[in-house]
Amino acid sequence: MRAALAEAEARPTDAAPLRAARDVLRRVFGHDDFRGLQAEVIAEVVGGRNALAVLPTGGGKSLCYQIPSLMRPGLGLVVSPLIALMTDQVAALVQSGVAAARLDSNIEPEARAETWRRIEAGELDVLYVSPEGLMQPWMLDRLGRIPLALIAIDEAHCVSQWGHDFRPEYRMLGRLADLFPGVPRLAVTATADARTREDIRAELRLTESAEFVASFARPELILSAERKRGGAEKRVIDLVAARPGRSGVVYAGSRDKTEKLAEALRGAGVPAVAYHAGLDKRLRETRLEAFLEADHAVMVATIAFGMGVDKPDVRFVIHADPPSSIEAYWQEIGRAGRDGEPAEGITLYGAADMAWALKRVAERDMDEAAKQVQARKVRQLYALLDGAGCRAATVRRYFGEEGVEPCGQCDLCLGTVETADATQAAQKALSAVHRLGGRFGRGRVVDHLLGKTKDPSDWEQGLSTWGIGQELSASQWKDLTEQLLFEGLLREDPNDGRPLVGLGDPEAVRAVFRGERTVAMRRHPEGEKAARGGKSGRKGREAMAVAASDQPLFEALRAWRAAEAKAQHVPPYVIFHDRTLAEIAAARPGGRAALARLNGVGEAKLAHYGEAVLEVVGSFAG
Ligand code: ADP
Ligand code: ZN
Fold first, then answer.
1. Which terminal residue of the chain, N or C, has fewer Cβ atoms less than 10 Å from its own Cβ?
2. 317 pairs with which residues across the strands?
3. pTM for the full model?
4. In this structure, CATH architecture of domain 2-213
5. pLDDT tens digit string along 120-163?
6. Ligand 2 midpoint to CA 390 (Å)
7. Which ligand 1 atom sits closest to the C-alpha of 310?
8. Which DSSP string corresponds to 8-60?
9. Candidates 1.10.10.10, 2.60.40.1730, 3.30.830.10, 3.40.50.300; correct CATH number of 221-414?
10. How far is the CA of 404 from the centre of ligand 1 (A)?
11. May I ask the CATH architecture of the domain 419-522?
């Protein structure tokens, strides 16, 4: 039976298994209560049933399988696509006193043997494996002789070619249904539209299972996007420099660009490093570690960086080049603010990026239908970026949510974008492109409209569109041409880096000439004047709510944590999140019982760090 959302919500959430689950949540993880659909998903899996859960990034997907792994007899098996993700999760679980390990190609034979000993002695609660690792015959054989609590398939959208991150090795996981018939399987992902969800269910043999789809709302994310103008690199540097002392990720479209941007940022005094798949593996690991372990650092990366990096205190994600789809947008932006504190997602984009993306899709080795899906995904992304309606609401509707309200905090909700009617100007621009015969680039079209072409030929000066655009400035004409590209009224052929502009959809172009279709031009705030580009953080939405009087204690706790993390060689946030330290600084617990009541302080952490934390707090008592 496929449970609708409403049905799932109507289920009793205080039944005995859920009381037990809540008890584990409190004792082991130190959290007061479940979030979103966690309780429903956990109830399903604890009950021994399969499920598909789509929860937003930071929504707490991992607890959905970690808690049932602790509650059900046997080993909880977690399939995860990336070693970085496994490492992080295992480190965090171990800190919480859970017997967890991973088996992947990086594990030394001795450690591997020890892990198998623990598995076979029934000492391990959670085991992380890669899909290809798990599906090796000897591995399946060995695991087949061990009682399993569940099988969780993380980042399940990787199984679908309609998703945005297809990994063929995920397809093998469908066989798990036959191989482990009595073991509940849980597929989890943060981003999957309806079609991708259907595909996940079919591929992973979950057609009869309950589906839980949480809201895609991420109220902590403050979104904005702006068209690239000349000097896009400087713009990125200004945006980062305006956010000092915070961790952030800057995504760039090429390896070369990550290096250049990182260097320019360092030149501006920002602790930035580049990260991409072309770097030596060791170097990549060192840089990733440095980023994860730093309190503030900026990672300039290609999309090779990201999946499975769950540093909770990333305060901004800036796309120096746009993402590839709305799914990718939400996932990449979603790496900011995982701790639930306000964070920003800022995207720079241009019509040229769209043209390249469409060209790449056209050239991909896929069948026509799949290409059309991917091309539509590209267009939908640019409709979002260059659109006029609330960005967060557009994303949520894209994922199929209904009854969505505007977020009230993105640049479009705040109304920094004004529009003016530009139908007449659009007619002039379209005529000019038509008369010029699609043989020139954008700059030339603008020059032509202004009658400013250098050494114009008699032919060009003889055209009826020569110099007819005096009412707008060159930069306004540039904006308008860009707009016409986004609307499909113009089309750009990348032409190996020397793009040519031609007319777009003929029906739509005719409609503009007949005056049946109007063109509203966005008025963009000029460069530095852009309110959203300047100082970060709007009033009342500062990064972490720590009262000024608690700040010294908060900083002292962070210093203690940094030293502890360094000694153990783990990221600071697996010891305590900033939010927990902020709660400690505010509550100033006088003893262990008071400390234990705070969010994020479970039994193991109380035992390990209780004394040390109370000592830091005590040193501020006098
Ligand atoms: P994702 O869904 O992105 O994988 P995680 O499972 O990593 O999210 O959880 C994100 C963060 O939220 C983690 O730091 C986790 O400790 C925290 N978290 C998860 N569930 C709860 C909860 N019920 N109460 C408080 N914090 C939670
Ligand atoms: Zn909005």
1. C
2. 249, 345
3. 0.71
4. 3-Layer(aba) Sandwich (3.40)
5. 999 999 999 999 999 999 999 999 999 999 999 999 999 987 76
6. 4
7. 7
8. HHHS-SSSHHHHHHHHHHHHHH--SS--TTHHHHHHHHHTT--EEEE--TTS-
9. 3.40.50.300
10. 24
11. Orthogonal Bundle (1.10)
